[in-house]
Structures are given as structure tokens and as C-alpha cells.
# Entry
Amino acid sequence: MVNTMTLTWEATREFAVMAEYSTYGSVVVLQVNNPPVNSFSYHVRQGLVDGLEKAQRDPAIRSIVIMGKGRTFPAGADVREFGTASAGMMPDLLSVLAAVDTSPKPVVSAIHGTALGGGFELALASHYRLAVPSARVGLPEVHLGILPGAGGTQRLPRVVGVKTAIQMITTGQHIKAQQALSLGLVDKIVQGDLLKEAVSFARSIEGRPVEDRRISQKTVPDAEKVGEVVDAARKTIIRRARGAIAPMTCVQAIQASVLPFDVGMQRERELMAFLMTSWQAPAQQYAFFSEREVRRWSHPRDKRVNFKTAKPRVIKSVGVVGAGTMGVGITISLLQAGLKVVLLEVNKKQLDRGITTIQKTLSQKSASQRMSLLTTTMDYSALSDVDMVIEAVFESMRLKKEVFKKLDSITKPQAILASNTSGLDIDKIAAVTKRPDKVVGTHFFAPANIMRLLENILGKHTSAETIATAMQLGTTIGKVGVLVGNCPGFVGNRMLGPYVTEAVFLLEEGADPQDVDKAIEEFGFAMGPFRMGDLSGLDIGWRGRIEKGLTTEQGPPPATPPLYRRGNRYCPLADMLCMQGRLGQKTGAGWYRYEPGSRAALPDPVVQQMIREYRQEHGFKKRTISSQEIVERCLYPLINEGFHILDEGIAARSMDIDVTYLFGYGWPRHTGGPMYYAEKVVGLEKILRSLESYQAQYPDHHYLQPSPLLRDMVAKGTSLAALGTDSKL
Ligand SMILES: CCC/C=C/C(=O)SCCNC(=O)CCNC(=O)[C@H](O)C(C)(C)COP(=O)([O-])OP(=O)([O-])OC[C@H]1O[C@@H](n2cnc3c(N)ncnc32)[C@H](O)[C@@H]1OP(=O)([O-])[O-]
# Structure
């Protein structure tokens, strides 16, 4: 415990302010006051310990209530403190919780908002727990690459059993008050004023012994089945974790809960230290803060394009053009957020299909209310009064231009016109309108009602107000919005180009699609490039290549060398599949084959034969390619493209790229994102040297040519954070 004699008056006052002490007769209420989420920074911990000691000393006090001021009960440790000197300053969270657990006077935690991580661990160390109906509790530390290290892995199983504890801790799920009550995690749900109710409850239990209320003194209800439960959980958890070490380490700590409490706590401490010092914990914490930091956007193009000064327009109604997969997903997202939507589709059959999907997807409970916000139409004039339109038609510049011309003439002059393009030039689209300042790219990811990323594209003339509106709309509909500049493929798909290209080159050299997918999935992606291609439809890329003149529906353009296009190495294997009608899952065959009604990708001898013949025809000698080479050859060119993107100012910060990949492309979160991984896990110098070495072997693979920015950063020892603007990380 800290020596209070050494404290200055200022510091003492601060402790008191962060854990306010008030008395209500025989009850002391300690209110944590550390906005925004009342996390346990050093001053809060000290304030709580001081408050508890003061309450113990006062004979007039017979019970103690702990609660949060403002919006929530403490939402956990202060993650920004991790790795800093204050994190290690005593009292640590464990001593705060020990003081609560061993208090001879009953301690009641009164929960509102979200009691998470250390916050929920504090509640579990208390003798009683009350919650308002809207409260949620949980131990989400696994998402930060750590475990609930303040006794959570020991106390939770003593209440709910090992099986449920594993489920809750390894998924980090938040559970609602009612479910917490039925699991025995909360003693009572209180309606009305929480402070009043908590004080009255505390009075009602005064004088009762606290010994049998201490969770630490209980035994785990399903202790005799622990081996069985852990074995059953192990397989699923390892598969789901895809390389993240925290989930299985959480299980190991929970397993120790069947031992005496102190022994289990010791095991929890050791495993926590292991995770805290791993490279994955900082990567996941970076991912957590980056997700929030991208809300503070700006762009080097124009200093007015900045979250601090740009004000969004109010959007109450949105038109969506196109009831295909994307248009329908976007409509669902908008309706779920309570916005009015006018969905336009010129094809009646497609419109009916879209309406059915929307009805099916909206949850039963709110479906009719949400559906009442939807108007469907085949007539453009129905869009005359909406505040914004999101066009989601087929990815063709000619078609998009036609649609934008119509929209420009029909919608009110102040309406914002957004294109859900995955890579077309937003300036060319804007140029057909008389309001290029109100044209913006809003690139959603399929399925649009589920995927969290929204890549917002700033065109040459897009105004700060328009971009602020697109970013705000993203927040309203629960997306993680990232602001990027205009270039072919923007950030996400532009970086995907080198990745997919290099993956196909690996087939020429000897790998099978399943070898490449396996290596990438072992790295942590949910799906390798070939399974992903089959899922999204191989025709999307093929149409794009045809539009760019790289291939034709019949094969290479006339007078083109088979393995080169516009002077660059080119592999036509994907085009060859499309020409055979193998477009992926939707046609039952692509890089893999699929049994009717199944999504399981089965290696296909037909594809293997096609690749073998191709190698023979073009004189490629098959060799064995290691998983390491596959990962490096696919991911380093993708990362390299990220450096080009930063160099050109297409992304303002490396974290914008990381967030794009984490939320739109399934990049494994425990590695922090491509740019973080490059710098903090692999090291920029190593990335550069590997690219150089691969480039020496494959001089005509132009994506392997290291970016000048990467070279420069390695030469000067510059860090990625130093390139960013407005970054707190
Ligand atoms: C031995 C130790 C064992 C214990 C370990 C732990 O407890 S580990 C912790 C276990 N707990 C968790 O993992 C809970 C993590 N937090 C959450 O899940 C959510 O923040 C929320 C549900 C509490 C509120 O959601 P919401 O959408 O209403 O709000 P929002 O998400 O936008 O956040 C508002 C602001 O607060 C910031 N901030 C938030 N939490 C922390 C923190 N712990 N720390 C520091 N800062 C934090 C956040 O960055 C943002 O700052 P900005 O950008 O405005 O400068």
C-alpha cells in the first residue's frame, strides 16, 4: 500500500475526487468518478482503498456501496496505463479487490452501464451485487490479448461453473442483467434510482455475516468434470483463436479454479504475466484504441477535412439504388439504425427478392416497426426528397455515371450522393453531376449489414461537410468508418491486388490453392485468398480485369504475350477458370469444388490438372514451397502497397490502413493489422530485406519492388506513428 505520508495535498484531493466518499447514515457510498468509463487508473485504485479504510475505521458505518458516477460502473482497468509506470504503482487492482473481499463490513456493488473486466471483477469480489435492468457485465479481456487477471478466472467459475466461465471468458461476451441474475452473478435487479435502492439494500443486510457471501471461499460447482470440460473446449477454442494465444491461456487459468483460491490466484498471476509480456497483447490493445482513434479523422488534402471543424448534415432519410446483395445489406443497416429508407430497383423480380431478404433478416421483434420505415420503388422520382442517396448498382463506370446523372437531376440540391463502389474513380462519377462537392464514396463490405467496415472515399471536390456526413452516418449505423483518398481500389482492394496476384504466382511455381489457403489461415485469416475468391465470386475480379483491358471473355487480348500484360507479369489462371464458368461457390466450382448445398471447399482434381498442364505449357518447374514463403510472398507485397498508399497520402495514418484490414478483410486482430504487424512484429528492416530478396528471384513481379517510403523509413529509422496526424497512440 502506498505511504500516504508522502502524498501531496493535490494528490490526496485527486484520490478523493476519483472515488467520492459520501455517507447515508450507516452506509458509505464510494462513487468512482473517472470519465468516460470510470476505468481503474492509479488514482481511482488509491481512492477506493482510502475510502474502504476510512469506512472500516468509522464505527458508525455498517455497510459499503461501490458504484460508478456518470454513465457506467467501472469498465475495467485503464488500458492506456498498461506498460506505464502508473500501472505498476500500488495499490494494484488485486489489492483493491482483496480489501473488498476481506472487508468485515458488507460491500455491495451497484451496477449500471457496463461492469467489464476489472470492473466486473470488483463486483465479483463484493459480497452483494445489484444491477439496473439495462446493465451489462462481462470479462472481455481476451479481446485485449490478456486474461481477467484480478481474480476473474477464479471467482467466475465458482459461481457459474467451469463450462460457462470458459464460454464467457474466451468469447469476452457481455451479458445482460437478467441473464446475470439467472446465472447467480447478480443478486437483485433494481428498478428506479440506483443510489437510493443500493443504500436501502445495504441497510437491509447490515449485521449479517459476510463469510458465506465471499465467492473466494466457495467451491466450483462442476469441479469434478473440469478435465472433461477443458478437453471438450480445447479443440473449438484453438480453431476459433487462429493463432491468438489469449483464449487458451484463459482456459488454463480457469482450469486452476478447482484448486484452493490462493493457489488458483497464483496461477492466474503467472499466466497473466505471460500474456502481458507477449507481443500479442500490445497488438490487440493497439487494435482496440485504433478502432476508436479513426473517429478522429483528417486528411492531408485539405485542412478543413478534419473531424474537429467539419460539421455533418443531418440525415433522416436515405435512398438506396439497387436491391442486389449490397443494396439490400445497406438497407438493412440503415433500417436497423432507425433511418427512413427509399429502396429503388428497376428490376421488379430483384426488388421482390430484396424485400423478402430484408424482411427475413430484420429481427422478429422489431421487423414490423423497421419495415414501416421502408419505401420501395421502381421510380427515380421517389428519391426527390431524401437527404442522401447511396448508389449500390453493378460495378460498372458507365452504369454508375448514368445513375448519378439521374440522381443529380431528381434529388434536392443539398442531397448527398454516395457511391458504394469498391474501387472506381469517385472523381469521374462526381464529374457527371453539378454537385461534385456532395459526391462521396461509401464502400461497404459484404454482407453489408454484418461487416463493420465503411471505407469513405474523399474525392477531389468532396466537401468537408460531405465527408463528415458520411463518417457520421457510419457511426449512426454502427460501422467503423475510415477516411481514405481516391485511387483505384482505394486502400482495401488496392492492397488486396498484390496479395492475390502473388498467391496465383505461387500456383505457377508449385503450390496448390489449398496449400496457399492453409498457410494464410494458419497465419490467422478466416479464409485464404482462394477460398475467399470462391466465396465472393471469381467473376467480380474477372469483369474488373476485362474492363481494364487486361483480358477478354475469350482469353488474352490479341497480340498479347500469354504471361505479360502492359509490361507486367500476369498469370491468367483465374481468367481460365471463369472462362469455364467456374465462378466460385455460386456455380458449385471455382478454385475448389462444392457439393450441392454445401459451402465446404473441396480440392478439385480438375483444377489441379489444369494447373499442372499450365505449368508444363509455360515451362514452370514444380517445387515445394514452405508455409513461411507463402505467408511472406502474399503478405509482404500487401504491406508494401500500404507504404505506397501512405506515401501518396491516400491514407492519412497507418492505423487507418490497419483498421481497414481488421474490420473489412479479416486480418487477424492479435497481430494488430498489416502495418502494425510489419513494424512491431516482423520489423521494417526485415520486411524490406525479404522483399529485396524475393525481388531478386522474381525481377518481373513488380509488386515485390520495395516502396521508396519503406526504404526511406528503414534508412532513417522512422516509426509509422511519426508519419501520422492527430494520433494519440
Ligand atoms: C490486473 C488487471 C486485470 C484487469 C484488466 C482489465 O480490466 S482490462 C479492461 C477490460 N475492459 C474492457 O475491455 C472494456 C473496454 N471498453 C469497452 O468495451 C467500451 O469502451 C465500453 C463498452 C466500456 C463503452 O463503449 P462506448 O461505445 O460507450 O465508448 P467507447 O468504446 O468509445 O469508449 C469511450 C472512451 O473510453 C476509452 N476507454 C474505454 N475503455 C477503456 C479502458 N478500459 N481503458 C482506457 N480507456 C478506455 C475509449 O478509448 C474511448 O476513448 P476516446 O476514444 O473517447 O478517447
